[in-house]
Amino acid sequence: SVSATPARLLVVGTDMLGRRAMTIEWTGNDLKLEAAPWVPAELRARNVIADLMLLHWPENAVRTGLTPAGTLREVDPGHRVIAVDGRDMIRIDRKDGAPGSWSGQWTYRNLAWGYELDILSVEAAP
After folding, report:
1. pTM of the predicted structure, to 2 decimals
2. Which residues have a Cβ under 8 Å from the Cβ of 38 and sit 6 or more positions away?
3. Which candidate among 49, 50, 57, 91 keeps its CA 20 to 30 Å from the CA of 28?
4. What is the C-alpha separation between 102 and 52, in angstroms, rounded?
5. pLDDT tens string 56-102
């Protein structure tokens, strides 16, 4: 689950059995991670937060957060492509759901680090 306010971003990740895998809290200045002992050390809190932002944050915020070499090369309601030095690094494709909504299905490909995620999100009422 994800809870986002201007003061804090809280992410709670679970596995397929519903066990809590990790809790990440980010305040903009401080990043805290609590992970279950079975979570691989390669799963980094900073990367989880960055992936979440690239997927859901508004286009202007993503553009602002990219490195000087980074560009948001393609943007439409169905996908985003982030490139660095002209080379595609991340491709996000919406497979289902209304544009602008956090509810839906996406395929998130990190071409630079060689992983792909199939994401299903559902917005819950506050």
Report:
1. 0.81
2. 21
3. 91
4. 10
5. 888 898 998 888 888 898 888 889 999 999 999 999 999 998 877 88
